[in-house]
Prior knowledge:
Oligomer: single chain
Radius of gyration: 19 Å
Distance between the termini: 32 Å
Structural class: alpha+beta
Helix content: 25-40%
Strand order of the largest sheet: 2-3-4-5-1-13
Order of helices and strands: EHHEEHEEHEHHHEEEEEEHEH
Amino acid sequence: MECPLLVWMLALNRDVTTAEYDTCYHLVRECAPYANIPYSPTSIESFRKIISQMLPLLMMRHRRISRSKWKHFEANGKHWIEQASDDMPPEKFLQSMIGYHLSYENSLCGMVMTQGRQRQVVNIGLGLKQLAVEPRGVSVPAYVESLAHKLTPLEMSFITPDVGDEVALRRLCIILSLKAAYVNATVPRTGCDLSRIEFNIPNETARIDDHPLQGWEFRVYKAQLGVARTGNVIEESYQCACAFFRGTKESKFIWHDNSKDLEAWVQFINIDQMVKVIPKLTA
Length: 283
């Protein structure tokens, strides 16, 4: 199954004004009313939801498909876009469905998408995890311990204190982003006990309830952001993972270790770039 994956990543690289919030809110209310986001101009969580819903609008505009020529569909937490079938042969129409998933984490919002038959494209998910402890100032071992209930004994064996704080935090975030991506691609509404899922990173295998996960493609990469906070630019790192069910015999892991690897399938934008194109998104 071909279905190439494409990702849009949007950096919330600065604070937004009330006027910008209002503009984005009214755009989403007009063009994506199914999102049903309450108006809350002082809430960063609300803005994350709003601007994430703008990513499919941007993606379709980038594909030169006007807003009147496509519709959004959702079932059991899975989202897809159906294009108008005008002047489109039946077989091409069936292959034109666009499955996508939206996710956000602190200063990063993202969308992963693919195109094909509806049943082929909906099992797709994006997982994001910032490489930082919560709450700020807590030790890495304490942070790992606070999340131990989401991990299996095997996964915990990869992030013991002897590997060092930097390695332990990175491994933890890789595992959690992979689990989030898989859950988002399968049961996004009801969720899942994450300790049921196990990622054996050295062996590049995955299991759920001790059964092998077969047919999945997992892509793992990092995003580096420069975020303006109180007059300073703060560097933030995020571990990102995509999960997509291809139906192959085995599951496959693809690792992207530098920005050059991502250029073919990941597009990075920021708030200023999104705000600039708002007038074109309703066309």
